[in-house]
Amino acid sequence: MALEVAEIRNRRELREFIHLPAKVNRANPLWIPPIYMDNWKFFDAKKNRAFQHADAVLALARRDGRVVGRIMGIVSRRCNELRQECTGRFGFLECYEEQDVFSALIAFVENWARGLGMKKLVGPMGFSDQDPQGFLYEGFDHQPTLDSFHNFPYIVRFMDAAGYTKEVDYVDYIIKLSDRLPEFYEKISARVARQTEFRLAEFTKTKELKPYGQRIFGLMNIAYTDIYGYVPLTDAEMDALAKQYLPVIDPRFVKVALKGEDVVGFVISIPNMNEGLRKCKGHLFPFGILQIMAAMKKSKQLDALLAAIREDCRGRGIDVLIGAAMMRTAIAAGFERIDSHHELETNLKMRAEVERVGGQIAKRFRIYQKAL
């Protein structure tokens, strides 16, 4: 049967690209659909500012006219200039359990990246580490979180067969909550809170949080400089992220550490919305928003999204100050566990902090690499 991989050329093919994962994962009970309204913006070069600083290609695989796979290729010019690399990325790869389809898709992006002078291909990754990255390779029985992959195990076999090896791994912890914080953690938190140098900002209303939006994302540019795959955000991108996330974030689950008026640390979490996304099948209208909000209210799992501490303030208890505040709020709201989201395997200080409060590794994700 004829197999062809080709770049998408029109809106109809983009629709096929966006909706293929729902078909591939029809038999995957833990898979969650994306929010399709966000997907249409993300893959649109006219609406996603990240395209301004990158070369990108979207491709579909067809067998006798039927779509059987998809892939995206990205060359982040900004990241390559910053890190003095010639590295391309592949991402958003989906296919059925057909090795030849996978091989054709990955070869398409390899050739595309090679044509742009790239010496190495890594993935799965997006434009930055704010996008889904890393294939799940352990913990397939655990619930996914928003913006993380929950691929079938065969994808890992396909990566190995295609000659890809480990670039970097991420671990994902589950922290089980009891009715109170561990005593030692309360004592450390109280000691840090007594310091006059740092203070904690907590919120109950979105309007209270709004002035902090760009300052939080600005801290990411400072604190994430050395994090694998991070691409600094422009002012326009920070504004776009603030507008995207602030309306859906429950302000109770944002904790900010201040030094004077400077934001020096923060953590943002959201109640798990998986059941709502499954019910509405990724469509916000006409009733999807209500289904998602209902699921978030009933959820017993809080999902960490983002966290950062300014480098010159690390090791001084800010992690405990904001972490303890988040756990207190989660306990008071009736949550039973927190999902840490991705933690770099090599980020031993953060991992030690999570393990100190009882966090146990539930999932492992891998970004792969191959020399071109």
Q: Would you summarize the structure shown here?
A:
The protein has 372 residues and is α+β, with helices and mostly antiparallel strands.
Description:
- With 372 residues, this protein is an alpha+beta fold.
- It folds into two domains: 3-170, Aminopeptidase; 178-335, Aminopeptidase (3-Layer(aba) Sandwich), CATH 3.40.630.
- 36% of the residues lie in helices and 28% in strands.
- It contains 13 helices and 13 strands.
- The chain has helices at 11-24, 36-42, 77-83, 99-115, 154-161, 183-194, 206-209, 213-223, 235-245, 274-280, 288-298, 318-332, 348-356, and strands at 3-7, 54-63, 66-76, 87-95, 120-123, 135-138, 165-176, 199-201, 254-259, 262-271, 301-309, 337-344, 360-371.
- Strands 1, 2, 3, 4, 5, 6, 7, 8, 9, 10, 11, 12 and 13 form a 13-stranded mixed β-sheet that branches.
- The longest helix has 17 residues, at 99-115.
- It is globular, with a radius of gyration of 21 Å.
- The mean pLDDT is 92.
How is the topology of this model organized?
Blueprint lengths: L2 E5 L3 H14 L11 H7 L11 E10 L2 E11 H7 L3 E9 L3 H17 L4 E4 L11 E4 L15 H8 L3 E12 L6 H12 L4 E3 L4 H4 L3 H11 L11 H11 L8 E6 L2 E10 L2 H7 L7 H11 L2 E9 L8 H15 L4 E8 L3 H9 L3 E12 L1
Parallel strand pairs: 4-5, 11-12
Antiparallel strand pairs: 1-2, 2-3, 3-4, 5-13, 6-13, 7-12, 7-13, 8-9, 9-10, 10-11
